[in-house]
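Give me C-alpha cells for this 456-residue protein.
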Amino acid sequence: AAPPDAVCTNEGTVIVELVDNGHFRVRGCPKVAADGRIDFREVGETSVSLQSGGVLVSSDLLVDGQQYHVTLATEDPEATYVVTANASEGRIELSNEYVTGAGDVTVELDGDTVLNAGFQPPEAVRGSVVDGNVSVEGDLPGGSIDRAVLDDGSSVRLLDNVTQESGTVSLPVTLSPNGSYSLVLLYGDGSSVFVEVGDGGSSPPASEGTATSEQTEGGLIQSLGGNNVLVGALLTLAVLLGVVVAMLWLTSDDDDDGAANGGATGSRELRVSVIDGYNDSQITGAVTVEATPQKQQTKEGYRLDTSGRTHEITGGTSRIEVPRKPVELEATYNGISTSRTVRLAESDGVQLRFGPVPQTLTVRDEDGEPIPGATVAIVSDGQTHVTRETDEAGRAHFDVSVDATGFEVAVEHDRFESASRHVADPSSFPDSITLAEKTGTLRVRTAIDGEATDAV
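Here you go.
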C-alpha cells in the first residue's frame, strides 16, 4: 500500500521493491482495481531491446533465479518462439533467437502473465564509401569489433578482421563508392551498430579481400531510392538482424570447438546416449536415430540444408557425426519415438530419453458395455509385474517401459471368462479386450420327503 503521507498526483506511477521471496513493497500511487488488487503488469517498468545476440528483457518484476516461461512473437517472419529462462539482475536474455525486427514478449510464471511488452529494431546511422572504407556519420562506440554482417543487395556475408578508427570502418572486402550497402557492426561487448551505406541505388557485389565469410544467394530486400531511403533502411535492417542472429548461432555458440574445426561448416561428432525413462537405465538394444538440420523460417536467398542422416546406436551410447549447425535428433525404438534439438554449443553427453509409455486398456462385454472391477495384469515369463483394476468406465491405466517386449496382458473377472493378449512391444499394446460372460449347464433333481419324483 502507499505510505499514509503520500500525495498521489499521478495514479499508476509506482516503485516496486522485492522485500523477500514472493513479497513486494509498493511505493507511490498504484492503479488499484475495483476489488482492491494491484495489477503488477501495469506498475512494473519494463524494457525490451534487440541486441546482436537476441532479445533483452528488463523489469523490476523479474525475480533473480526464478525460471519463467517466455513467449517471443515476431512479425517478420511471422513466428513464435517458446523458451524457459532464468532471470538474473532483473533481466532475461533470450540469446541466439531468430529475431527479425518488431515483435512482442510475454513472460509467464505458473500460468500467470508477469509482463508483456513489444519492441522495435534499432535505428540505423548513415555512412559512405571513402577510399574503400566506410566513413560513419556520428560517433561509434569504443571497443573492438568482433565481426560484421554486410548486405550488398545480392548477397549477405559474415566478415571477420573488421577494425575501426576515428569513425572509419575498414572491411576485408572492397566496396564500390557508388553502391548501397547495409552493414551491421557487432562489438565484443554484445552491442551493435546498424549502418546504411550509400545513396540507396543498386550495388555491385563487394569484391573479395581476405574475408572469412558466409554468403547466401539472392537479395533479402531490394533497396529503395529517393525519399524512401530511410524506409528501405529500416525494412532491410529488420530482416538483416534475423540473418545476423542465425549466422551467429551457426558460428559462435562454441568458439573453441569452431576454431578447431573450421567454424560453422563441415561436421561435428556427438556422443549420444539413449535412456529408458521408466527406470532411468540405458537402452542396450539397437536404437535408430535420424539427425536433421533444424528447420528454420527461411528468406528468399537464404537456404538451409534439411537433408537428414540415419544412425544406429547400440549398447546405450554411440558417437555419431552431424552437421555443424543446430540439429533435430529423432530416436525410434520398439515403435516409439522421441526427439530433441541439439544446439551448436552442445558437443558431448547428449541424452535422448524415452519416457514411460502411457497406455489405457478398456475392458468390455460382448454387448460393448464397460466392465468395472476387472483385474488387468502385465505378465512376463509367468511372473506378474503390474496389476490394475478397471474403473466405472472399464478402463485401466499403465505406464510401460519402452524396453518392454514379449509380454502378456491378462484380464480376469468372476462373472466372465478370462482373456489375454500377447504384446510384442509398447507400440502394439491393445486398446481394448472383450470378455465373454460365463455359461454352463445346471442339473436339477427334485424329491418329496426324500423320494425322487418325476415332476414338480
